[in-house]
Specification:
Layout (H helix, E strand, L loop, with lengths): L25 H12 L8 E5 L5 H8 L4 E5 L3 H14 L5 E4 L3 H6 L5 E6 L7 H10 L4 E12 L12 E8 L2 E7 L1
Protein name: 16S rRNA (Guanine(966)-N(2))-methyltransferase RsmD
GO biological process, one term: rRNA methylation
GO molecular function: methyltransferase activity; nucleic acid binding
């Protein structure tokens, strides 16, 4: 069962949807928070969590000072779990769940984000992940950061012009890439 590692919501245990959801491990979430924390001030940051699953990463960043988060999850049951996890953390006023596909969400104009996290199902093909990455620029604030979590054995997606990978770390069967806008 995932938990919030640090900050305002530290120690809160988060529910996890069915077996089809692969929550980001505590180790990877801590690494992502450290990578971001060394490059930006999270205070007031606007976070977009695509393929939210449990919502653990967005909630971790809110716990560490991010201002708001939008969590996109297409699975209705998983979206309900994310709402429950937001309630457990008392983050109602700062977090919003969008129950739509990532492609649908990204195709509509909307707000700009300082941090975007993509954690697609490992079975999702590199072409679909590349399409999500290509649709991001219209949703990125100046000097935004994009974090992609993917299977180590999976094919590397194409990064669109304007998004530059600056760090890649491996954690067992998981690879995390941090890209700058």
């Amino acid at each position: 069962m995932p938990r919030i590692i640090a900050g305002e919501f530290r120690g809160r245990r988060l529910a996890s949807p069915a077996e089809s959801t692969r929550p980001t491990s505590d180790r990877v979430r801590e690494a992502v928070a450290s990578m971001l924390g060394s490059r930006m001030d999270l205070s007031g940051a606007r976070v977009l969590d695509l393929y939210a699953g449990t919502g653990a990463l967005a909630l971790e960043l809110l716990s560490r000072g991010a201002g708001s988060a939008v969590l996109v999850e297409s699975d209705r049951k998983a979206a309900a779990v994310v709402r429950d996890n937001i309630a457990v953390c008392g983050a109602h006023g700062r977090a919003r769940v969008v129950n739509r596909t990532v492609a649908s969400f990204l195709s509509a104009p909307g707000e700009l984000f300082d941090v975007v996290f993509l954690d697609p199902p490992y079975a999702l093909g590199a072409d679909e992940v590349s399409a999500s990455l290509a649709a991001l620029p219209g949703h990125l604030a100046d000097e935004a950061w994009v974090i992609l979590e993917r299977a180590a054995r999976g094919e590397e997606p194409e990064w669109p012009e304007g998004l530059v990978p600056v760090a890649t770390k491996s954690y067992g069967d998981t690879v995390v890439t941090l890209a700058a806008n």
